[in-house]
Amino acid sequence: MKKFLVVGLGNIGEEYRGTRHNIGFEILDHLAEKEEFQFSLDRLGDVGQFKYKGRTAICLKPSTYMNLSGKAVLYWLQKENIPLENLLILTDDLNLPFGSLRLKTKGSDGGHNGLKDIQKMLNTGSYPRLRFGVGSDYSRGQQVDFVLGRWNEEEAEALPERLNRCSELIRSFLFAGPKNTMNKFNNT
After folding, report:
1. Has the keyword Hydrolase been applied to this entry (predicted)?
2. 113 marked as part of a ligand binding site
């Protein structure tokens, strides 16, 4: 059975729940609800899994805080013997309009400290990542406050549909692979 590691980036703690920077955690929580699996505390994070069309997806919400996510990613890849092409990182992106999705199989960290640490720990930028657009509606120098801020009313209203779309994308990634998934979902 083919195994995948799906990692939602975020920060642990109530004060971060519902913030833009925690969209990776939100996506996985939504997926867990749809696929009816639970997370439990394990080494370096909360872990859950589900099966989809002959594939096993191990889902991880690292407890290392965003900027040290690479340690948890590397540990679980090695523990489960999962190749890099079967890794999917779920992260926020300030450069994309709210709710837009962009799947890439490699790339730079784009200034994102969580991705920066993952690239450092994996020694490569060649791993799949889903970037969820959180918009850029902030004043110069205020990006930290913006990503650590909560969704506005309009975003919060649109979020459930966007989370459904993310769940569809993840299932497609598991079964159809990154290329077909990019063609179907990018910029939707």
Report:
1. yes
2. yes
The pLDDT tens digits for 97-124 are 999 999 999 999 888 999 999 999 999 9
Active-site annotation holder among 20, 21, 162, 171: 21
67 is in an annotated binding site: yes
**Is residue 123 part of an annotated ligand binding site?**
no
21 is catalytic: yes
CATH class of 2-185: alpha beta
Tokens 């889903």, located at residue? 130
- Locate 80 and state its tokens: 């489960």
Residue by residue, DSSP assigns the chain as -EEEEEEE----SGGGTTBGGGHHHHHHHHHHHHHT---EEETTEEEEEEEETTEEEEEEEESS-GGGHHHHHHHHHHHHT--GGGEEEEEEETTS-TT-EEEESS---TT-HHHHHHHHHHT-S-S-EEEEE----S-TT-HHHHHTSBP-HHHHHHHHHHHHHHHHHHHHHHHHHHHHHHHHHTT-
- Report pLDDT for 142: 79
